[in-house]
Amino acid sequence: MIHKLSDVQSKSIGKDTDIWQFCVILKDAKIGNNCNINAQVLIENDVKIGNNVTVKSGVQIWNGITLADNVFIGPNVTFTNDFLPRSKQYPKEFLKTIIKKGASIGANSTIVGGVTIGKYAMVGAGSVVTKNISNQELWYGNPAKHKGYVCKCGNKCDDSLICSSCYMGGGK
Is residue 148 assigned to a domain? Predict the structure, then answer.
């Protein structure tokens, strides 16, 4: 479903993907299956979004950003893609930011261009991420710092990377 009040120029939109009102999606963007792109989202050309991704309202996804399968982007998350921005001056290449499978980024976080956020990692709301984050790590703060680990289900855990609920239930 593409809401009639959105401007979707891309033909690369997967099956069962919902795009809500007031979104702008440029022609070369690629969006997978079963995604939910909430209201007031901008997606530029050199963007790849996997399957089962949720992008909440008020997010701009700039050139050079890749969101893998099952990623969650909270409301008003801010991405950057240029370390030296100047009006009407563009870099030869925008910074590449990769958010890997199953990672979650909390509301109002800022992700500085050029970082990689690992599989199933979690960034707490309001964080400013300036460094790479490894798989299943929990980071938060300004600047964001490593504060622990999360299970693939999203619950906090220790460095075994599996929470007690999943462990008792046979693991994931």
Answer: yes
